[in-house]
Amino acid sequence: MNHIFPLLLIFLSITGCSSESHPTSTAAINLTFQEVAVPTTPEAKKIIQAPSQVSVNGLTQSIGYQKLFASGESNNGEIFGVIKDVSGKPLKLADGSPYVCNGTNEGVGSGLDHVSILQKNHKLYMVSQYECAVGALYMNELLQDEKGVLSVKANSLQFIDQSADFGGYVHCAGQTTPWQSHLSSEEYEPDARYIETHMKNLHQGIGGYYFAETEKYWQGDINRSNPYFYGWIPEVQVLENGSPSYQKHFSMGRFSHELAYVMPDQKTVYLSDDGTNVGLYLFIADRKQDLTAGTLYAALWQQTSDKGLGTANLKWISLGHANNQQIRKVVQQKPTFSQLFATAERNEDHLCPAAFHSVNTSYGSECLQLKDINQDQKIDELDEVIASRLETRRMAAYKGATTEFRKEEGITFNPQTNQLYIGMSEIARGMENNMKKGTDNTKYELGGRNDIKLDYNPCGGVYQLDMKADASMQSEYIAQTMQGLIAGTRKSYPLDSNYANNQCDINGLANPDNLSFLDDSNSLIIAEDSDLHENNFVWSYDVYQPNLTRIYSAPLDAENSSPFWHKEVNGFGYLTIVTQHPLKKQPVELSRKESQAGYIGPFKLQ
């Protein structure tokens, strides 16, 4: 751990790398990180490990991991990560203590997931989001000393009220936008059809937002809540007076949002969908730095190769134009699924009745028929565009897009090569060809398109997408092709090996989650969220001379959430990272199990 990773290894490939050709380096900054070893002792497995040095264009700098805060810590009379109800009162656990979203309370969320550093009003702000069924957002100021070290400013923490847009829900990954706002997400949207037909008042945990009492936590109130309240992209902006402004972008569609990633034109946004049999989406706003209105598209995967992670041409299917006000008006009326679609059962040949569309999404195999507003006056302005925002994944399949991706995760962009990168946690289920984990199974293809036909790979991988301008779509950043960049590899280790608890090669990826490309450099950062590596790692992948360097090892049970590169913050660079629910299953004190935000750095790149 205390040596510089040999420079010679920069030129060597590693098991699991794609055989595709790599672009010639045009990077202004060549980064070589110190390698972090795979932890093999009980003590090493329980701590964060990060590099102490990095080579920047051949010159060595000292860096390290710096903690900013952990959930449960207090500041300004607030507690990081406390979940509050619609009136702003903290939810309480059975013992009367405030409910902190830290991932240790079984069944109610994963914990802190993403933090943004925002440069506004000649100050530094941090926005933090929490991945629990009742989501939370907090904002605080940061201090920066002359050496670039960041710290949380005392008496600056404030809870961000989300009640104006129905509250928050399972905030997953996020981005600091080019205009210095925090772009959030709402993952695992409630299934409105299932709630309407089966659950009645039970509303997937969001009931706690309306009933703070513990015994009512899992019981929602359909008179106050609605499944269509959740599954959107929220944005937090910092006003001139230092207060946060919050809104949901209903124009961008409703599904299991992992991440919304804004491209350099500040109007094109790629949207990933986390789950089984999900889609890939693209939103093009009408105006720069304004996501309140635009056109939504869904990708059609047209496969050209089944080797490795596969290769495909992409066709973008329009789901129409909408604006926030138009969609919010419908959402506010608390619609039901049956007001949007009629449904039918398949016949003995598994076919849908005439006039019904056959789809297979994360909701399963369905026969759907979009209803005509003239037959149902309960929702004003009901049309195909409204349905495409409230039921985006279903409508994508309805209109012929691909809904077969599995655990679609982080997104980032390399402007030097004009390539987008997307993490796919595993190649499985809908991405296989009538199989599940390599065994015959038609569940994920029945009634669907079966566009993706690849071999099962539980370790997953990262895709690269080549961009071109498309005048008809009014964007310079339209993905034309999608192909594998680097994949993880299954590997079994002997029971007496130091690596016995790993099921993917410890020198390769296991379930890549969120990504971040370090602008003007050679480094793609890849974070893991896996049970197939005993400790989850963060990697630096040289996109020009294919090579993986392990730069971070999380404690046991921890997910590495949402690494994000802040290149220029008053002359310093920071790679923020969240260690989510560390030591969750270990017999240690609660304080060590709290999710924490920190960064690798500071980097001096000039």
How does the SSE layout of this entry go?
Layout lengths: L30 E3 L19 E4 L2 E4 L1 E7 L3 E2 L2 E2 L32 E9 L2 E8 L5 E9 L5 E3 L5 E2 L15 E2 L5 E2 L8 H8 L33 E6 L5 E6 L7 E6 L5 E6 L2 E3 L1 E8 L2 E16 L5 E13 H9 L4 H4 E4 L12 E5 L2 E7 L13 H7 L1 H7 L6 E2 L1 E7 L4 E6 L10 E2 L2 E2 L20 E10 L4 E13 L24 E6 L5 E6 L8 E6 L4 E7 L5 E11 L2 E9 L15 E8 L3
Antiparallel strand pairs: 1-2, 2-3, 4-38, 5-6, 7-8, 8-9, 9-10, 9-11, 12-13, 13-14, 14-15, 16-17, 17-19, 18-25, 19-20, 20-21, 21-31, 22-24, 23-24, 26-27, 27-30, 28-29, 30-31, 32-33, 33-34, 34-35, 36-37, 37-38
Helix pairs in contact: 4-5
Overview of this protein structure:
With 606 residues, this protein is mainly beta. The chain has one domain (7-603): Neuraminidase (6 Propeller). Helix content is 6%, strand content 38%. The strands form ten sheets. The chain has a nine-stranded antiparallel sheet with strand order 16-17-19-20-21-31-30-27-26. Strands 7, 8, 9, 10 and 11 form a five-stranded antiparallel sheet that branches. A four-stranded antiparallel sheet has the order 4-38-37-36, with no helix packed on it. A hairpin with a 2-residue loop joins strand 7 and strand 8 (123-130). Helix 4 (384-390) crosses helix 5 (392-398). The longest helix has 9 residues, at 324-332. The chain is globular, with a radius of gyration of 23 Å. The two termini are 27 Å apart. Mean pLDDT is 91; it is low at 1-20 and 212-220.
